[in-house]
Specification:
By secondary structure, this protein is an all-alpha fold. It has 6 helices and no strands. 23% of the residues are buried.
Protein backbone atom coordinates (compact mmCIF):
# COMPACT_ATOMS: atom_id res chain seq x y z
CA UNK A 1 0.00 0.00 0.00
CA UNK A 2 1.51 3.29 -1.12
CA UNK A 3 0.84 6.31 1.05
CA UNK A 4 0.23 9.55 -0.76
CA UNK A 5 0.61 13.11 0.49
CA UNK A 6 -3.09 13.79 -0.01
CA UNK A 7 -3.86 11.02 2.47
CA UNK A 8 -1.46 12.48 5.05
CA UNK A 9 -2.13 16.22 4.93
CA UNK A 10 -2.68 16.48 8.70
CA UNK A 11 0.47 14.51 9.51
CA UNK A 12 2.54 16.49 7.02
CA UNK A 13 1.14 19.72 8.47
CA UNK A 14 2.25 18.69 11.96
CA UNK A 15 5.73 17.62 10.84
CA UNK A 16 6.33 20.76 8.75
CA UNK A 17 4.99 22.99 11.52
CA UNK A 18 7.18 21.41 14.19
CA UNK A 19 10.29 21.58 12.00
CA UNK A 20 9.57 25.19 11.01
CA UNK A 21 8.89 26.36 14.55
CA UNK A 22 11.97 24.52 15.85
CA UNK A 23 14.06 26.30 13.23
CA UNK A 24 12.60 29.71 14.11
CA UNK A 25 12.79 29.32 17.88
CA UNK A 26 16.17 27.59 17.66
CA UNK A 27 17.57 30.48 15.66
CA UNK A 28 15.96 33.10 17.90
CA UNK A 29 17.28 31.23 20.93
CA UNK A 30 20.85 31.39 19.64
CA UNK A 31 21.21 27.70 18.79
CA UNK A 32 22.44 28.41 15.25
CA UNK A 33 26.16 29.21 15.52
CA UNK A 34 26.94 32.60 13.99
CA UNK A 35 30.11 31.11 12.49
CA UNK A 36 28.03 28.92 10.15
CA UNK A 37 26.76 31.95 8.27
CA UNK A 38 28.66 34.40 6.10
CA UNK A 39 28.30 38.00 7.24
CA UNK A 40 27.24 40.30 4.42
CA UNK A 41 27.35 43.65 6.26
CA UNK A 42 25.21 45.82 3.98
CA UNK A 43 22.61 43.08 3.67
CA UNK A 44 22.36 42.55 7.43
CA UNK A 45 21.75 46.27 7.97
CA UNK A 46 19.13 46.39 5.20
CA UNK A 47 17.14 43.33 6.32
CA UNK A 48 14.66 45.12 8.63
CA UNK A 49 13.78 47.52 5.80
CA UNK A 50 13.58 44.73 3.21
CA UNK A 51 11.38 42.69 5.52
CA UNK A 52 9.01 45.61 6.07
CA UNK A 53 8.66 45.90 2.29
CA UNK A 54 8.13 42.13 2.01
CA UNK A 55 5.46 42.30 4.73
CA UNK A 56 3.65 45.09 2.87
CA UNK A 57 3.90 43.07 -0.33
CA UNK A 58 2.45 40.02 1.45
CA UNK A 59 -0.50 42.11 2.66
CA UNK A 60 -1.21 43.08 -0.94
CA UNK A 61 -0.90 39.53 -2.28
CA UNK A 62 -3.14 38.17 0.48
CA UNK A 63 -5.76 40.82 -0.36
CA UNK A 64 -5.49 39.99 -4.08
CA UNK A 65 -5.88 36.28 -3.32
CA UNK A 66 -8.91 36.79 -1.10
CA UNK A 67 -10.57 39.06 -3.63
CA UNK A 68 -9.81 36.64 -6.46
CA UNK A 69 -11.38 33.65 -4.75
CA UNK A 70 -14.43 35.69 -3.75
CA UNK A 71 -14.79 36.51 -7.45
CA UNK A 72 -14.37 32.86 -8.43
CA UNK A 73 -10.97 33.36 -10.08
CA UNK A 74 -9.18 30.24 -8.83
CA UNK A 75 -6.12 30.72 -11.02
CA UNK A 76 -5.51 34.26 -9.77
CA UNK A 77 -6.18 33.15 -6.19
CA UNK A 78 -3.64 30.36 -6.50
CA UNK A 79 -1.05 32.71 -8.01
CA UNK A 80 -1.55 35.30 -5.28
CA UNK A 81 -1.32 32.77 -2.48
CA UNK A 82 1.79 31.15 -3.98
CA UNK A 83 3.28 34.65 -4.29
CA UNK A 84 2.44 35.30 -0.62
CA UNK A 85 4.16 32.07 0.36
CA UNK A 86 7.28 32.93 -1.65
CA UNK A 87 7.36 36.44 -0.16
CA UNK A 88 6.97 34.97 3.32
CA UNK A 89 9.78 32.47 2.73
CA UNK A 90 12.07 35.30 1.58
CA UNK A 91 11.07 37.27 4.69
CA UNK A 92 11.74 34.29 6.94
CA UNK A 93 15.15 33.46 5.44
CA UNK A 94 16.26 37.09 5.80
CA UNK A 95 14.83 37.38 9.31
CA UNK A 96 16.48 34.18 10.53
CA UNK A 97 19.79 35.15 8.92
CA UNK A 98 19.79 38.51 10.71
CA UNK A 99 18.64 37.06 14.03
CA UNK A 100 21.33 34.36 13.90
CA UNK A 101 24.00 36.99 13.34
CA UNK A 102 22.81 39.85 15.54
CA UNK A 103 20.00 38.67 17.77
CA UNK A 104 16.80 40.66 18.27
CA UNK A 105 16.80 44.44 18.05
CA UNK A 106 16.61 46.51 21.21
CA UNK A 107 13.61 48.81 21.55
CA UNK A 108 14.88 52.41 21.38
CA UNK A 109 11.87 54.13 22.95
CA UNK A 110 10.72 54.88 26.49
CA UNK A 111 10.25 52.00 28.90
CA UNK A 112 6.51 52.71 29.39
CA UNK A 113 5.90 52.46 25.62
CA UNK A 114 8.08 49.35 25.57
CA UNK A 115 6.15 47.69 28.38
CA UNK A 116 2.58 48.70 27.55
CA UNK A 117 2.58 49.06 23.75
CA UNK A 118 5.59 47.47 22.06
CA UNK A 119 5.74 44.18 24.01
CA UNK A 120 1.99 43.44 23.71
CA UNK A 121 2.09 44.22 19.97
CA UNK A 122 5.16 42.05 19.52
CA UNK A 123 3.61 39.21 21.53
CA UNK A 124 0.41 39.29 19.45
CA UNK A 125 2.46 39.46 16.23
CA UNK A 126 4.52 36.41 17.26
CA UNK A 127 1.49 34.47 18.52
CA UNK A 128 -0.42 35.05 15.27
CA UNK A 129 2.63 34.09 13.21
CA UNK A 130 3.01 30.84 15.21
CA UNK A 131 -0.69 30.00 14.93
CA UNK A 132 -0.67 30.82 11.20
CA UNK A 133 2.10 28.37 10.34
CA UNK A 134 0.12 25.11 10.65
CA UNK A 135 -2.96 26.70 9.10
CA UNK A 136 -0.98 27.92 6.10
CA UNK A 137 0.74 24.55 5.70
CA UNK A 138 -2.62 22.81 5.85
CA UNK A 139 -4.29 24.93 3.17
CA UNK A 140 -1.21 24.76 0.94
CA UNK A 141 -0.98 20.98 1.27
CA UNK A 142 -4.69 20.55 0.54
CA UNK A 143 -4.35 22.83 -2.49
CA UNK A 144 -1.36 21.02 -3.99
CA UNK A 145 -2.58 17.48 -3.32
CA UNK A 146 -6.13 17.70 -4.68
CA UNK A 147 -7.92 18.69 -7.85
CA UNK A 148 -10.00 21.87 -7.62
CA UNK A 149 -13.29 19.98 -7.25
CA UNK A 150 -11.92 18.04 -4.27
CA UNK A 151 -10.56 21.22 -2.66
CA UNK A 152 -14.08 22.62 -2.60
CA UNK A 153 -15.22 19.58 -0.61
CA UNK A 154 -12.41 19.96 1.94
CA UNK A 155 -12.05 22.41 4.85
CA UNK A 156 -9.61 24.40 2.67
CA UNK A 157 -11.82 27.49 2.28
CA UNK A 158 -12.84 27.63 5.94
CA UNK A 159 -9.28 27.11 7.23
CA UNK A 160 -7.95 29.40 4.48
CA UNK A 161 -10.13 32.30 5.62
CA UNK A 162 -8.77 31.99 9.15
CA UNK A 163 -5.20 31.51 7.94
CA UNK A 164 -5.34 34.52 5.60
CA UNK A 165 -6.82 36.74 8.31
CA UNK A 166 -4.31 35.77 10.98
CA UNK A 167 -1.42 35.90 8.52
CA UNK A 168 -2.44 39.39 7.34
CA UNK A 169 -2.81 40.72 10.88
CA UNK A 170 0.58 39.25 11.78
CA UNK A 171 2.20 40.92 8.76
CA UNK A 172 0.50 44.23 9.61
CA UNK A 173 1.65 44.07 13.24
CA UNK A 174 5.14 43.20 12.01
CA UNK A 175 5.14 46.47 10.09
CA UNK A 176 4.04 48.34 13.23
CA UNK A 177 6.88 46.67 15.18
CA UNK A 178 9.31 47.69 12.42
CA UNK A 179 8.07 51.30 12.56
CA UNK A 180 8.48 51.37 16.34
CA UNK A 181 12.02 49.96 16.12
CA UNK A 182 13.43 51.80 13.11
CA UNK A 183 11.28 54.75 12.06
CA UNK A 184 9.64 56.46 15.04
CA UNK A 185 12.04 59.18 16.26
CA UNK A 186 11.99 58.41 19.98
CA UNK A 187 13.34 61.29 22.02
CA UNK A 188 16.37 60.55 24.23
Amino acid sequence: MQLQARDRVRELTVVLSVVSLALVFGTAGGFVPETLLPRVGPLVAAIPHLNAALSATALVTIAVGVRAIKGGDISRHRGAMVATTVVFLAFLVLYLYRIALEGPSDFPGPSTIYQFVYLPLLAIHILLAVVSIPLVYYVLLVAVTRPVAAIRESPHSRVGRVAATLWAVSFALGIVVYLMLYVVPWSP
